[in-house]
Amino acid sequence: MTDQLRLGISSCLLGNEVRYNGGHQLDRYLTHTLGKFVEYVPVCPEVGCGMSIPREPVRLVGDVAAPRLVGRETGTDWTEAMQTWAADRLEALEELDLCGFIFKAKSPSSGMGRVKVYPPEGGQPRYDGRGLFAGMFMDRFPLLPVEDDGRLHDPVLRENFITRVFTMKRWRDTLKQGKTVGNLVDFHTRHKLLLMSCSVESYRALGKMVAGAAKHDPEPLFDDYLEQLIKALTLKSTIKKNINVLQHVLGYFKKDLDAAEKQECLELFEAYRQGHVPRIVPITLLNHYVRKYGKQYLAEQTYLNQHPTELRLLNHA
To answer: Last residue of a domain, which of 234, 269, 295?
Structure first.
């Protein structure tokens, strides 16, 4: 990647004391681990739209599709102030080439889902709302990877999100080199195995799109490719899908490995399939053979080197 990967993030997750009670929600994985590889752009919608620290807690009230943001005790309506500030902030964020955003779970401003929305006449809330700012952000940037801090505690969801974030950075780097057929072919070639691990159908469909790239205008072609790419990467990569990719990679060594080496690979694949070892184990062995036998095509595959090993995203069995 050519420069620092930039992520938007709810400011309180970095340890900034901006919450209604003057506290924070520091997430040490985000700051101490992922933070070594990204540049964060902190955002606190409440402070941004003029609320003080500390302040009266706010909540969403009314129609789930268009709720109001009001004070819990006084009923002060912050909806217009939040929407006006958010519109300006989104304009500024668009200039920063963000590769994703990490929201504060269940927040009435920043929750990306499962946010409480109270009926105006009182009673039990619904739990299917979106935070006011988060909703505007996702509507404005529908293809950007987004997650909340709660869901990122799940190792599968964390891997999926960070994979999409790093892929978005590589995509932005490709765009800087120019929207040419050659650059699109190069990007797609490097991501073939990663796509296969998410969806064989998407892998084939995007392959056909690239194969016919010369017949199309670059602008809509690149837009269509990105949309299909993000849809594919949003799908969860399962053990079965990964076994298929690992076996596909092994096929590149059919003339290089002896019977014992091939058997060792197959045994590690089976151990991974049964949950006895994490995926990093067979991938490490395959990367050893990639270097040993000079397999340049595989060396350039992002699937075998998706993100920094320090993030330990492939270490869960």
So the answer is: 234
Q: What are the φ and ψ backbone dihedral angles of 117, each rounded to 5 degrees?
A: -130, 115
Q: Would you call 199 exposed, middle or buried from its count of C-beta atoms within 10 A (0-12, 13-18, 19+)?
A: buried
Give the separation between CA 13 and CA 20, rounded to whole angstroms. Answer: 14
Element (H, E) at 47: helix 45-48
Q: Are 24 and 136 within one domain?
A: yes
Residue 50: helix, strand or coil by DSSP? coil
Looking at the structure, do residues 171 and 275 belong to the same domain, yes or no? Answer: no
Q: CA–CA separation, 169 vs 171, rounded Å?
A: 5
CB 67 within 8 Å of CB 60:
yes
Residue 125 is classified by DSSP as P
Q: What is the pLDDT of residues 166-188, one digit of tens each?
A: 999 999 999 999 999 999 999 99
Are residues 142 and 16 part of one domain? yes
In a domain, 316, yes or no: no
Please indicate, yes or no, whether residues 79 and 135 belong to a single structural domain of this protein: yes
Which one-letter amino acid corresponds to residue 201?
A: E
> CA of 16: how far to CAs of 4, 9, 274, in Å?
22, 11, 42
CA atoms within 13 A on the CB side of 97: 14
pLDDT tens sequence across 52-67: 999 999 999 999 999 9
Residue 162 CA to residue 145 CA, distance in Å, equals: 8
Picking from 202, 234, 266, the residue at the C-terminal end of a domain is 234
Residue 108, number of CB atoms within 10 A of its CB: 29
Q: Are residues 106 and 164 in the same domain?
A: no
DSSP 189-232: HHTHHHHHHH-HHHHHHHHHHHHTGGGS-HHHHHHHHHHHHHHH
